[in-house]
């Protein structure tokens, strides 16, 4: 296929934080859900939401009128379980935008609540939405906060109690297995097919990489879903089980990467049931296993650390822990990246205009600051001063003020549009105001590479040398934007206008 040799569309790129030579990778581990298999997010999350709502209706909660709102929540938000708020924070942990329940918090209310707060995700108070599976519970939680505030829920109950109830209700729905049974029965309704994934995995396998499946899903779900997702696109007579050297289900990530647990062989009885048999000795090919640990897996493979790449969608369970504990190389799958890159590209002309007007605004502000300082020195009789008459200084200051007001009126709609790209409440996944979002900071810190789907490896090949861009700080002239030390200096010529 010619796609091997052509550049991918920008949104299908592989983005590199830390240089990665794929030729040095001996084994590639994959998560399953939202990594090898992509779901129709709105369809899945609406159904998960409905199961939570049913569980709450069974407890006589007045929630029958509630409906899933796909625009209310995005990955990377943080739930403040103490206050009942949905938050978007920047890379430093400062809150940049907040909803209380489903209602936007005003500037002053948000400032009062969070001006002295730096979010530390190690604290129990904060729940980070690591994955697309978090959207349904966060949506209904925000709506329930509204009902709690209106006195319509049984009590007494605080916002933390409410979150615990939502969490338990969702867990109960998953434990019952009804949602997964629906998906197995009708995968076409819930799964986004990607025929290219199988070819990308075949390329890696034939290039000598050992392929590993490490998923928290149980065998009864993984088997039919992997068949549906991969088998139709593999060579005739081949199944997905021949692709993978090791298959581990019910892995209990992140504990799989941090603790030692017994490993069991999954024995398929042929009657739809699977039995577990304690494993002893070497792992057998094409045999699924239950539980175990990364340490045991490394010993079986004869590999460790940076010889292994792990690919997953969960920021903590897949990427953070493997990087911190095992020093494996890491790849994060962010399906939303495709919409994000396209939205940024569509906004590029407006972004350029916004940047151009901001340069003028900064120059005017710098001149205004100098004029104010001149007046201050003149009135206090100290320091060097110009010969310009005071009335001229005041006149120029007034003219600048009018220019700035006109500029702000022009910039306002453009800035608002920039803040609403991709989502009307939260904007882009990776930005918080003019800074990187908390999610972007974690991607940068823990994911060596990130991309929107596994099949994007097709464009790179198993032999690619992925190089990270040069790092930058605000003083670095390679990166435009921001206010330099001398705002009135033209960045391109080094001259003062």
From TrEMBL:
One of its GO terms (molecular function) is metal ion binding. Keywords: Hydrolase, Magnesium, Metal-binding. Coiled coil: none annotated. It comes from the Bacteria. Residues 474-497 are annotated as: Disordered. PANTHER family: 5'-NUCLEOTIDASE DOMAIN-CONTAINING, HAD-SUPERFAMILY HYDROLASE, SUBFAMILY IG, 5'-NUCLEOTIDASE. Belongs to the 5'(3')-deoxyribonucleotidase family. This is HAD superfamily (Subfamily IG) hydrolase, 5'-nucleotidase.
């Amino acid at each position: 296929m010619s796609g091997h040799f052509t550049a991918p569309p920008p949104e299908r790129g592989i983005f590199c934080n830390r240089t990665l030579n794929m030729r040095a990778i001996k084994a590639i581990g994959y998560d399953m859900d939202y990594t090898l298999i992509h779901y129709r997010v709105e369809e899945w999350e609406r159904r998960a939401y409905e199961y939570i709502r049913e569980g709450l209706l069974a407890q006589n909660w007045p929630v029958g009128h509630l409906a899933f709102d796909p625009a209310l929540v995005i990955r990377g938000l943080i739930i403040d379980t103490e206050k009942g708020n949905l938050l978007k924070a920047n890379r430093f942990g400062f809150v940049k935008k907040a909803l209380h329940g489903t209602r936007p918090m005003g500037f002053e209310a948000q400032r009062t609540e969070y001006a002295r707060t730096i979010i530390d995700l190690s604290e129990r108070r904060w729940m980070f939405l690591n994955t697309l599976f978090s959207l349904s519970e966060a949506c209904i939680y925000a709506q329930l906060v509204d009902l709690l505030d209106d006195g319509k829920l049984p009590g007494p109950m605080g916002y933390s109690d409410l979150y615990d109830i939502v969490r338990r209700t969702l867990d109960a729905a998953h434990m019952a297995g009804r949602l997964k049974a629906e998906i197995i029965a009708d995968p076409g309704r819930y799964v986004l097919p990607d025929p290219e994934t199988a070819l990308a995995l075949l390329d890696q396998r034939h290039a000598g990489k050992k392929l590993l499946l490490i998923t928290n899903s149980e065998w009864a779900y993984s088997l039919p879903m992997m068949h549906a997702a991969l088998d139709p696109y593999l060579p005739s007579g081949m199944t997905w089980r021949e692709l993978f050297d090791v298959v581990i289900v019910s892995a209990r990530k992140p504990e799989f990467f941090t603790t030692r647990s017994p490993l069991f062989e999954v024995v398929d009885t042929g009657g739809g049931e699977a039995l577990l048999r304690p494993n002893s000795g070497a792992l057998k090919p094409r045999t699924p296993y239950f539980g175990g640990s990364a340490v045991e897996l490394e010993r079986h493979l004869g590999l460790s650390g940076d010889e292994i790449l792990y690919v997953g969608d969960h920021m903590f369970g897949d990427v953070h822990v493997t990087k911190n504990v095992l020093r494996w190389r890491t790849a994060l799958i962010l399906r939303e990246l495709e919409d994000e890159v396209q939205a940024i590209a569509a906004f590029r002309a407006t972004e350029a205009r916004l940047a151009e007007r901001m340069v003028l605004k900064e120059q005017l502000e710098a001149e205004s600051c100098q004029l104010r300082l001149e007046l201050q020195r003149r009135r206090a009789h100290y320091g060097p001063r110009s010969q310009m008459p005071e009335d001229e200084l005041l006149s120029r200051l007034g003219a600048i003020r009018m220019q700035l007001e006109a500029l702000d009126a022009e910039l306002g709609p453009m800035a608002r549009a920039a803040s609403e790209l991709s989502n009307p409440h939260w904007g882009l996944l990776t930005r918080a105001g003019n800074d990187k979002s908390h999610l972007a900071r974690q991607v940068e810190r823990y994911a060596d590479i990130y991309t929107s789907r596994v099949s994007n490896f097709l464009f790179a090949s198993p032999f690619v040398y992925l190089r990270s861009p040069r790092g930058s700080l605000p003083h670095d002239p390679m990166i435009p934007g921001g206010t330099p030390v001398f705002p009135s200096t033209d960045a391109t010529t080094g001259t003062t206008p």
